[in-house]
């Protein structure tokens, strides 16, 4: 019974995140609204999205305890579908900012219900793994949607077509949700205010120590996502096909890395070494994107470096998620995951905005390159202070 629900949840998560990041790829290109949003516009859209998500997430959480998870989950997918479709027909900038908010509301109602449903379906033994798969589907949606968007644009597909396809995918997954996903039991919980939830988790010493590790890393995700399309258009001299290969290699190696390193981390009951290992890999990868022109790697036959670094970077997400699960107590796990959303959200706000600033001041090099080095350094220093709390194997 649970297997189908979980598979469906991961699938709709992937589709929903992908549709947003396809949209980001589209609006950061020169062909959308004549490039009206490229640059600061994209940074603002990327900031509004997590802001609305963060501000509405706890409302949807408590509301799903009242009326059940399923109706809210289905609604979230239809909201996202509407947002993607409207992006396709929007003609003025201000509309894009409003729609980014609509995406955020869709995400908030989607995240809380999905995490609650996964928690409803999980036991102590498999919870970290199941949460890890959730993170994997989020990241795959993010990278897949974004990469696909860039590649299809390079191949000459029209923005409206891509956005309509994203909307259709969301609408279909909404229908599938109604048809296939069963309601996981509704547990009445007392309503938690955002402030109370935050205070409780913010007091946790281990959570505080994670701030300097997580926020810079997610900011780096945000930086890479907000700038890649522009960098590809302006600085790259490789064909759409080579680009496709490049993204595919990176994607596959990252996924393999996440799965392999996740199992290793569980097996060895260690999180910190994997967090550091992954940080270094991801940092090197991001630095190569902005500091070393990718196409020169291609020409010099150094491309195997990319999938290798991608694989290493895969060590970070599962170990970091498992670390969060390790430090959270069972009853406040929801709150801790909520804080994870806040880390993620704030990083996604800081990343694109700081990237746009660094780029406007110092260009690709030294501007962005220095920002990447700074973010990675902060995160690595922060890891030094984390305490290993993985449960000892019985």
CATH class of the largest domain: Mainly Alpha
Tally of DSSP helical segments: 14
| Inertia-based shape | globular
Annotated CATH topology of the largest domain: Growth Hormone, Chain: A
Mean pLDDT: 83
Give the helix proportion (percent range): over 70%
Largest sheet: none
* SSE order, one letter for each helix or strand: HHHHHHHHHHHHHH
Characterization of the model:
The protein is globular, with a radius of gyration of 20 Å. The protein has two domains: about 1-180, Up-down Bundle (Growth Hormone, Chain: A), CATH 1.20.1250.20; about 195-394, Up-down Bundle (Growth Hormone, Chain: A), CATH 1.20.1250. It has about 400 residues and is mostly helical. It contains 14 helices and no strands. About 80% of the residues lie in helices and about 0% in strands.
Sum this structure up briefly.
With about 400 residues, the chain is mainly alpha-helical. Helix content is about 80%, strand content about 0%.
